[in-house]
Amino acid sequence: MKQNATNAQQADQLAHKASEVAARGGAVVGQVVETMRGIDERAVAIFRTSQAAHRGAPAAIH
Fold first, then answer.
1. Is the predicted pLDDT of residue 37 greater than 80, yes or no?
2. Which residues contact 59 (CB under 8 A, 6 or more apart)?
3. How far is CA 50 from CA 37, 39, 54, 57, 61, in A?
4. Could you tell me the sign of the dihedral formed by the alpha carbons of 8, 11, 17, 20, in that order?
5. Following DSSP, what letter does each residue of the chain receive, concatenated?
6. Mean pLDDT in the chain?
7. pTM over 0.85
C-alpha cells in the first residue's frame, strides 16, 4: 500500500514536470512564430521597395 502511494506521488511529480516543460516549449514556439512573422514582414517591405525602385517610383513606407 505504501509503495503504491509512493509510486502515485512520483507519477504525479513527473506529470507536473512534463506539463511545465510542454508549457515552456509552447512559449518558445510562439516566440519563433512571432520572429518569423517579423522577418516575413521585413522581406515583403524590402521586395516592395526594390520593385518600386526598379520602376523609378517612390516606395511606400509602412
1. yes
2. 48, 49, 52, 53
3. 20, 16, 6, 10, 12
4. negative
5. -HHHHHHHHHHHHHHHHHHHHHHHHHHHHHHHHHHHHHHHHHHHHHHHHHHHHHHTPPPP--
6. 91
7. no
